[in-house]
Structure formats: structure tokens, C-alpha cells
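Report of the visiting student (M.T.), summer placement. My assignment was to run the structure pipeline on a short list of targets and document each run. The first record concerns Polyisoprenoid-binding protein YceI.
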Amino acid sequence: MKRTALFLIAALAVSPAFAAGPSTDVAEAQSGAFTVDHSHAKIIFSVSHFGFSTYYGLFNDFDAKLNFDAKDPAKSKLDVTVKMDSVNTTNPKLDEHLKSPDFFDAAKFPTATFKATKIEVTGKTTGTITGDLTLHGVTKPVTLDATFNGAGENAFKVYVLGFNATGTIKRSDFGITTYSPALGEDVTLTISAEFNPAK
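After the run finished, the C-alpha cells were exported:
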């Protein structure tokens, strides 16, 4: 606890801008090419487990590229690639089952991709991102509700854009039907990501 407190005090002392927090004014953000900060990003999925509980998992290996237009966010571009064999539920046997032909069939379909086709601004820090999701060899349009968390330098003088997003897909739309409909059809996606300027 003492080490954590000392680290936070030192970080805030080094970076007054960080202490003030990120700016949520989109117009003040930097435009340009960004890549996801893998150490500060999560793609989490959840599904009803036969109606008894909600089961959660995530993907450990993914990449995302953002071309951000601060003056006109609707013109921004986003491309995401997820490696399906990186699925992680903290249960190794379940992970292997999800990678099998019963579910993701990761050997045959090693990646899932999302390519934004339309971005709509709905508020000062909110918007929707519609794109083509290719999963299990099937491509379908998916819309995510997105929130701009802010932009600015972090404690280490690295420029950051931060976003959250949520959405729901129906797994049978992508040909994943094992144990359907007893095992939940609707899969909720919860995404949070920091982006840094591309090098």
C-alpha cells in the first residue's frame, strides 16, 4: 500500500496535467493515426450460462488501429483484429472447448475482425460505431455504443485517447449454435481501450 501511494504521489508531482485528468472536449484532442495500448485495453464477452449465471471471458491477443479526426469524429476510421485462440475464461478446459469446432473453431477461423463503416456522434462524449464484424467465417453488421473518456498526456508523458464501448451480438448469426438456445444466444461485448500515437 505504501509503495502504491508513493508511486501515485510521485506521478502526480511529475505531471500536473495528469493530476487535472484527461480532457473530455473532443475538439481539443489530437488527430492522426493511433494504435491500441495492449496493456490498457480489454475485450470482454459475457453470455447467460443456461439461465443460472452470467459467464465471462476475454481475449488476450488483439490489435486495433484508429485514425482519429478530432474536428469531425464521424470521419474517423477503426480496424480491429482479434486472435481467437487467445480466448481466456480462467478455465483451461473451457478455453480449449471454445477454441474447438463446437464454438470458435480457431484452427479454421484464427481471427475475428471489425472494420468500422459508419460513426455517428450522438452527444459531447458519446457516439455509435457501426462496422462489419467477421467471426467464424461470417460477416455481419454490428453497432457499438461508444463513449469518449478523454484525451491528454498520462503520468509518463505519453499522449492517450481513451474510449469505452458496449454492444450485443447474436452468436447464431455467426454460425455458433452449440447448446442453443439453452446456452445464451445474446453475447454482450464490453470494451475499454487506450490508444497512443502510432510510431
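Strands lie at 32-49, 53-59, 62-68, 77-83, 87-88, 111-121, 126-135, 138-153, 159-170, 186-197. The domain at 23-197 is CATH 2.40.128.110 (Lipocalin). I thank the supervising group for their guidance throughout the placement.
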